[in-house]
Specification:
Layout (H helix, E strand, L loop, with lengths): L1 H12 L3 E2 L2 E6 L3 E6 L8 E6 L11 H6 L5 H11 L3 H7 L5 H7 L6 H4 L4 H24 L5 H14 L1 E2 L14 E2 L8 E11 L3 E5 L9 E4 L6 H8 L12 E3 L1 H4 L5 H9 L7 E3 L5 H11 L2 H8 L9 H27 L6 H25 L1
Parallel strand pairs: 7-9
Antiparallel strand pairs: 1-4, 2-3, 3-9, 4-8, 5-6, 7-8, 10-11
Helix pairs in contact: 3-7, 3-8, 7-9, 12-14, 14-15
Length: 372
Amino acid sequence: METIERLLDWAANKGVIINGIGPTPLPGRGIGIVATRDLNPDEDILTVPVKILRTLHNTPKPIRQNLKDSTVHAILATSLCLETDPDFATWKAVFPTEHDINTLMPLNWPSELQKLLPLTAKSLLAKQRAKVDTDWALVSTAYPSISKHHFLYAWHLVNSRTFYHVTKTTEKLPKADHMVLQPVADLFNHSPNGCRVAFDDTFFTITTTTPVKRGDELFIRYGSHSNDFLLVEYGFTLPGSLNPWDEICLDDYLCPLFTKKQRMELEEIGFWGKYMLDSDTACYRTQTALRMLCCTYTQWRDVLDGVRDEDTDQEVVNEALVEVLERFDKDARRRLEELDGCAVGNADMRSALRDRWLQIQEMVAATIARLQ
């Protein structure tokens, strides 16, 4: 608690306004923000002066010059690695530890566990690895004294704790580079129904959207993300019922069913792959692909051309989807069995991966039950 009290004192001296909330250690979840009194909707609960944000603009000039061809992500991570200001140590004291980051982030997991990730998570992880490798190639050349594990720790901190922010100076940069770090605000956890976040030239402000009881945790919304995205980028997932944007990819189970000619046909119309299922329905791409499997070619083309009602074939499409999902369910069970017998990594890593497969299994089972 001393580290939190020091942070609050430091933040207040920097002009941060904290209203009716406070950081609190949460069992098994690090630090979060809870209400210290009953809160009403539309109350500004946190106001952070823009001048104290860590941004590209206020990163030391030598770092910016040495990494002029790097991403803002890499520049901010490098600045964390090189930071020696005792003032910053007060803020840094509430960051997740390197052990925490290594446990939470799949990029740091043993390869055996990474191979057990769902397809979408694997794809996201490959893209993340490519970003890290590109950033590290430039940083390691400019700053050979920085170790890769230290840089990777800082890179993950920036990746999981920054906020979207744009100024006249940065508006021409790619959207991915519109990122800043800000104290206290970075302690909010994620919920689809989180508080409202806004900024102007002077302040970042977080505002309630619903009534909150004293002692309840408050959240912000990181974005409309699936659990695969949340796991890879932030190191956690939400229970499936709490994430309206969760979805799973059916490619591993649907794509092998097509002939070479059918694949070429689907590619020609831009409908090959990326077959997604959420808690409500399979996407239109999936429906179109499935219809190719269970209708005549003429019927399939007529639906695409709008001269045949797609509902006419919905029953057989649903039957085909159930067969695909039954294969998916069998694979999910196999993955869970592999995890039960797995000893690599640590228990928290394996638990996070197991939770994700259980969420997938739940979505698959619920869809099968609804369609049968």
